[in-house]
Model the fold of this input.
Amino acid sequence: MPERVKFDQMLASLRRSLEAIPEHRTGSNVQYDMTDAGLAAFSVFCLQSPSFLAYQEQMRKQHGRDNAKSLFGIENIPSDGQIRNLLDPTDPSYLREPFWDAYHLAQASGHLESYRQVAGTLLLSMDGTRYFSSEKVHCDECTVYEYEAGTSYVHMVLAAVLSAPGQPHVLALEPEFITPQDGYDKQDCEQQAIKRWLARNAKRFEDWSVTVLTDDLHSHQPLCELLREHKFHFILTCKPQSHPTLYQEIELLAQVKGAHQTHTLRRWVGHHYEQWRYDWVSDVPLRTGKDALRVNWCEVTVVRESTGEQLYHNAWITSHALTSQTVEAVADAGRARWKVENEGFNVLKRQGYEFEHNFGHGHQHLSTVLLTMLFLAFLFHSVLHLTWDLYQAIRKALGARRNFFNDLRALTRYFYFESWEAMIAFMAKELEVGPD
Done:
C-alpha cells in the first residue's frame, strides 16, 4: 500500500519557505515574525474560518494551549491587521516551493500513478481567471481596463493543475500571477504567464512525462513550439473558426482513402445507449506557410442513440500519435481540461474557499500572497484526500465540502487537538467511519 502524505510534512515545507523570507522591517519593534504571520494566514484558509485566530487567542488565555500552535505551529498569534501589514511587502515567489514539495511527496508515495494517462504522462491543465475586480481599490499589480463607464482594476492568475479522467480532485501546482507587465490583452497576458511558468518549472519534470491541456485561446504554433522545446506533449482544444488552414486540410484529406479515420463505440450509461464517434487525421499543418508545424487532430462526437441528439462534441490538436488504440485516451484527456474549471475554479469559488472574496488588497503583494495561501490550502486538502483513507472516509460521510469546513470550525473553536492526526481520528470516531 502506498504511504500517506502527512499534513505536518507539507506544513514543514511552508514553514521553511516562510523562514527564508527576508526581514523588511527596520527598528526594534518586531513583536511578530514573518513565519507566524504566514502560518496564521494559512490557518484561516486551511480551516476556512475567518475567526479561527480570535478563538485560539481566547483559548490560549483561558487554558494555556490552543489549536493555532498545535495544528499550525503558530507561536504568537498576530491580529488580522498585523498579518496584512507583515505580508504585504512579501513577494509570493517565496511561497513556490511548498507546492513542489507536496507534489514530490505525493509522487514518492506512489499516489500520482493514478494521474498518469496518455502514454503514461501527467495531464497538466492551464487556465487563467480573474480573482479580484474593483472600480476603486487598486495597486501597482492591478491590470487596468478602461471603459466608457469608467475604469476597472483587476487581478488575474494563471492556474496550473494536475488532473485526470475519473479523478475527483485536481492537484494545484504553483500559480503564475498575471501582472501589467504582460500587457492588457487577455491572450497576451495568459500567453506570457504560460511562458514564464514553463521557463521556471519545465525542468522539474522528466522529458516528455507531461501533457499540457489548454483551451482554444492558446492552441497555436508559438505555444506548441514552446512546449516541444521544453519536451512537453500537448492536447489543445481546436475550433474551426480559429484554425481555418487546419480544417481545410482535414476536409481535403477526407477525400483521400485511409487519411481520415473513424472509430465508433456504443456505450450504456445507466439509462440509455450513446454512440461515441472518434475521427482523426495525422500530420496536418497547424497554419499556412512552409514553417507550419505538423500536428495530429482528433474529435469526438457523442450522440444519444434513441433520439439522435448530439450530447457532446469537441476537437483537439495533439503531439501524441493517434490510432484506434490511442484516440479514446487522447480525447478523454482533452476533456479533462475542464477539470481546471469544474474541480478547480468552481470548487474554489463555490465550495467554501471564497476564491473571489477580497481578503485584503494591500499596496504591494498582499492580494497575491493571500491567494497563494488559498491555493496551498486547496492543495493540502487535495493531497490529504488522495493519500489518507481516514480523511477520505470523513469527507464521504459529511458529503458537501462545506459540511467538512463547518465541522472543522466548530471543533477547533471548542476543543483542543494535539495534532491533525488526533483531530481527524476524533472526527472519524464520532462519525463512526473508517477505511472501507
Observations:
- The first strand starts at residue 122 and ends at 134.
